[in-house]
Amino acid sequence: MIDRRPIGIFDSGVGGLTVLKEIEKILPHENLIYFGDNLRAPYGSKSTEEILKFTLNISDFFIEKNVKMLIIACNTATAVALEVLKGRLNIPVIGVIAPGAISAINLTKKNKIGVFSTPVTAKMNAYKNEIEKINKDIEVYQIGCKPLCKMIESEWEDTEENQDIIKYYVEKLPTEIDVVVFGCTHYPIIKEYFYRELEGKQFVNPAKETALEVKKLLKKLKLLNKRDSKGKVSFYTSGSINKFKQLAEKILDRSLEKIKRALN
User: Fold this and answer.
1) Does residue 145 have an active-site annotation?
2) Per annotation, catalytic residue among 27, 71, 74, 179
3) Is 55 among the annotated ligand-binding positions?
4) Reduced to 3 states, what is the DSSP secondary structure of residue 63?
5) pLDDT single digits (tens) 7-39
6) Which of 147, 159, 161, 258 has the most CB atoms around it within 10 Å of its CB?
7) Is 43 a known ligand-binding residue?
8) Is 75 within any annotated ligand binding site?
9) CATH of domain 7-95+208-261
10) Is 184 a catalytic residue?
11) Which residue of the set 9, 81, 184, 218 is catalytic?
12) How far apart are CA 15 and CA 186, in angstroms?
């Protein structure tokens, strides 16, 4: 059976493109629709009520597009709205927190994990709660990094000042941690800045683990698109098309032909 319906992927901005990029590698035949809510970004500084309202609005957009699965490629939206969307929609819904948490658990030898995320994700103890479901002996240190998403969406510059910002947040973690989780899908975009400050630590990019989980679930539910040709990818943003295009092309390392506006 070939299910040609697209997979929906969304984020508050361009961060979720790190998830899309991994899905394209693992599932090249799948049709994908990406929505970046750049107009209302960043979510990490919004109230949970606002974030839930945004995600419900976006899920309605994807249902109209007849998607067969919805991926919340945003840690903050996953923390706030995953269970609500699972109960509301008649299609599979996957977030990025559980795949990232499981990977971190499997990697840590010292049972000490650090997580960099938005303030909302950190305040909700999203990774700590997910990890404790599996192993209560693991200590989880969650650091909310308020300015990073907005800075990345504004096109991050390679400056000493920006490196100092990363250093400021890194210094909040105990040195004993051996695994670091990018608890925001934007952060892998500037991963080198974290690597410089945390040499010798193992990093988890939940985007990769999420893509593997997507493939596993599609196969289980017999929803795979098994055709031979490459899948079609469509892009939508609620914000500036030119700004989205500029950032997206840099992240995906290719030119994008057509980007449409939606929910603006």
Assistant:
1) no
2) 74
3) no
4) helix
5) 999 999 999 999 999 999 999 999 999 999 999
6) 147
7) yes
8) yes
9) 3.40.50.1860
10) yes
11) 184
12) 4
